[in-house]
Amino acid sequence: MLNPSDKRKGTDEFVNTPFFKDIIDRTLNYMQAGFPVHFVGPTGVGKTSLAIFIAKQLNRKMTILRGHHELSNKDLLGQYSGVKKKEIIDNYIHTVFKKEQEIKPIWIEGQLIEAVKNGHVLIYDEFSRSRPETNNIFLSLLEERVLPLYGNGKNSFLKCHPDFTIIFTSNPDEYAGTFHTQDALLDRLITIHLDSCDRETEIEILRQKIGLKQHEAEEVVRLVTNLRSYGNGFCPSLRASLMIASVAKTSNIQMIAENSSYQALCMDVLIRPMTQNLSKQPPAKVKELILKEILRREGKK
Hints:
Layout: E1 2-3, E2 13-14, H1 18-32, E3 37-40, H2 47-57, E4 62-66, H3 73-77, E5 78-90, E6 98-109, H4 111-118, E7 121-125, H5 132-135, H6 137-143, E8 146-148, E9 157-159, E10 165-170, H7 183-186, E11 190-193, H8 199-210, H9 214-228, H10 238-250, H11 260-277, H12 283-295
Parallel strand pairs: 3-10, 3-11, 4-7, 7-10
Antiparallel strand pairs: 1-2, 5-6, 8-9
């Protein structure tokens, strides 16, 4: 949803529709009042892109942290890695030999330290993919505005810069690879549930990001939106619309229902998510359904 081709203001522009404007305005209000925000929603709804855009509006440096099950306090805070060796040999007087050796462990600072010290906007992307015990470190950071330090042997905590703030993003708990987030952490966040954007916004995204004409964008969105009605309303995601639009644009594929190249493109992009939606249907039936929706005209079944 960021438009890399628009550099008029020196930064990427975001699709400006009422759907996103409302979310952006609310988020900025919460963050300016000192509260961290949590975007939760299914994959492909634009959580990370939205978080990055909002961080840019605050005109501060940004740090992006990716959640995963192996993330640990060492990654966040830092750790000792190797040693630094210094050796001095003094043989100025040839009858006297003097040797000094100093060995110091090397401390590698973690990503979170710099962000807290310098007042960055931290985007903790897919934080529920990290283990809850790793995320416990954020409890005191959000409540007391101090970061506990473990392992460096110098200070027990670091005071938080007044400008430091966090945007969390996550998928729902039922997604594979996620951990259930502790209530104590969620209680410190303002959670905004993100759904698939409305039809007008999705059309505008394809127009601005890919450069489609209005009728082309409408055709892609019509197809993907109709297919979503067979599942949970989120799948196929916005990414599917972007894939179809981008390939058709770069390969000069006419986006008309009767074009076999366009049909093949749509089938390749949509067969996997539609098979997920219709898991009890054989693949041949799923393909038949996708083709039926490609050829459907508005108002006709």
